């Protein structure tokens, strides 16, 4: 075996299943990175009476998202596929709209709730492929991501209630 030959992956998941799961995780990675960027942008640009609360909350959330993109990308690599890593690719794969306006604090919260819920739906959409392949590590990752994003959506939504 020369150093150019790839050693086959034999983890009990077929190549077809690994490809399907990696494709779904790539969409999850794109959504997560896009939400990371949006949350970081809002952290920098939020103003108004809730500034301190939102500045800190957004920072907590983007730091968690930064760790999450690493976990998702590493799972894609463990399945034997390249992890997407460019804005161009993320723009094609993400379900989260990018905007370049300057929303007020309340609109930032609304957009982040929508973004968090989009990530949940994307993670949920990958679950059947992971389940079909008995890919427990991916199912664990997806379950953890859904829990975190559902909680974040709830916490953000709570700020909008009077």
TrEMBL record:
Pfam families to which the protein is assigned, alphabetical: Ferritin
Lineage top rank: taxon: Bacteria
Annotated Ferritin/DPS domain residues: 23-161
Matches recorded under InterPro entries: DPS_DNA-bd (IPR002177), DPS_DNA-bd_CS (IPR023188), Ferritin-like (IPR012347), Ferritin-like_SF (IPR009078), Ferritin_DPS_dom (IPR008331)
GO function terms (MF aspect): ferric iron binding; oxidoreductase activity, acting on metal ions
The family this protein is said to belong to: Belongs to the Dps family.
Protein name: DNA starvation/stationary phase protection protein
Phylogenetic placement of the source organism: Bacteria, Pseudomonadati, Pseudomonadota, Gammaproteobacteria, Chromatiales
């Amino acid at each position: 075996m020369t150093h150019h030959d790839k050693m086959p992956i034999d983890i009990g998941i077929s190549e077809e299943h690994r490809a399907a799961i990696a494709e779904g995780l790539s969409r999850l990675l794109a959504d997560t990175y896009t939400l990371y960027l949006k949350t970081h942008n809002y952290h920098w640009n939020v103003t108004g009476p809730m500034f301190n609360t939102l500045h800190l909350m957004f920072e907590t959330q983007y730091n968690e998202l930064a760790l999450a993109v690493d976990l998702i990308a590493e799972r894609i690599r463990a399945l034997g596929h390249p992890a997407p890593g460019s804005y161009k690719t993320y723009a094609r794969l993400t379900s989260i709209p990018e905007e370049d306006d300057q929303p007020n604090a309340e609109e930032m919260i609304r957009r982040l709730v929508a973004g968090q819920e989009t990530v949940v739906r994307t993670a949920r959409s990958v679950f059947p492929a992971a389940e079909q392949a008995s890919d427990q590590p991916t199912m664990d990752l997806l379950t953890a991501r859904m829990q975190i994003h559902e909680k974040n959506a709830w916490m953000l939504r709570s700020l909008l209630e009077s």
